[in-house]
Each structure stands twice: as C-alpha cells, then as structure tokens.
Design a protein that fits this description.
Helix content: under 10%
Shape: elongated
Number of strands: 14
Structural class: mainly beta
Largest sheet: 4 strands, antiparallel
Radius of gyration: 23 Å
CATH class of the largest domain: Mainly Beta
CATH topology of the largest domain: Immunoglobulin-like
Strand content: 35-45%
Length: 183
C-alpha cells in the first residue's frame, strides 16, 4: 500500500510572492489559501481577512500606510495549507486600488503591477516654445500606444486617435512660452 505524506511534510512551508505595484497604490485585495503577511516598501503592513470559503480560501485586504507616487515593492508571504502550494495559494488576481501616481512614458508591461492593467491614464508635460519654433508646422508623435488617446494643449482638445499613427498637428494650439500638454 502506498502512502502519500508529502502534503503533511509541507504543511509548515511558506512562499513569498514579490512584485512592483502600480504607481500610487493605496490598497490590495486578493484571495488566498493560508495565513498571510504582507510588506509594502519593506514595512510590515496589516493584512485584514474577510470572508472565508469552506475550503479555506480567504479574502484579504492590505492597505498601504503611506501612498508612494512611484511604484511600491510588495511582498506577500503565505503559510501554505495542504493542497495549495506555490501559485495555487493565490488562485486569482491581486486587485490594486490606486490614487494619483507618477510614471514615465514607456512600456507598462515592464512594471509587474501594470502587466494586465485596464483603465485610463493621464500624462502631463510642460514645454516652452519660442517664436522661432512657432513659425513652423509642429507635430507631436506619441510613439507606440496600445489604446486610444486624446491630446489636450492648454486645456483645448487637439484631437482623438483610436489607432496609429499617433501623431497630432499641434501648430494652431501652441503659444509662445509655456505650453501644457496632457494626454
């Protein structure tokens, strides 16, 4: 007769799950199997348990003690229970609630907390133009995007783009001196 003791031998093992959050993270919500602890930017943070299913899956909420406008480093430690080891201990998404944050333009998939982001974002850039620049046709190229974009210049919409090319003729919207671009 075979005996499978592996789950019994592993019942005290734990796992660490580390990632970078989205900028401006306020809180996390996730469900996990096992006792859970969390650290945000190296600071141990209270983990509040919610509903628990009969199989032991528990909802957890973690609230940041302070909001980092940049990404935060998050570590979640789970004391595994039999049958739910490794990635099986967190069977769903880790949902983030974020406030205002700051991020440089670029490929968001390079930030762990934004790989599957769905929602809006707003970029803001101040530029200064002199009278010489205003004598030319001026275009703004937003580069490679994977969503729609609306560009505002000094509070006025310069247009919406739903697909490439992501360029805007901004000649009639800019003025000498400080110009505010938002997209």
């Amino acid at each position: 007769m075979e005996c499978f003791l592996l789950p019994l031998l592993q019942k005290n093992k734990s796992g660490l799950f580390a990632f970078e959050s989205a900028p401006g993270m306020k809180s996390l919500r996730f469900s996990a199997y096992g006792k859970t602890e969390a650290w945000i930017d190296g600071i141990k943070t209270e983990v509040i348990p919610g509903n628990t299913d009969p199989d032991g899956l528990t909802e957890f909420t973690v609230t940041a003690k302070s909001i980092n406008k940049d990404v935060s480093r998050v570590v979640i430690k789970i004391q595994f229970i039999p049958g739910y080891y490794g990635g099986g201990a967190i069977p769903g998404y880790i949902r983030q609630t974020c406030g205002n944050g700051e991020i440089s333009p670029g490929d968001w998939s390079n930030i762990d907390g934004l790989k599957s982001y769905s929602g809006g974002a707003r970029y803001r850039k101040n530029i200064t133009l002199d009278s010489f620049a205003l004598k030319n046709k001026l275009e703004l190229d937003l580069g490679d995007l994977v969503s729609s974009a609306e560009l505002f210049i000094n509070g006025k919409s310069a247009g919406i783009r739903l697909s490439p090319p992501w360029t805007f003729d901004i000649t009639e919207y800019v003025t000498e001196g400080k110009t505010i671009l938002k997209f």
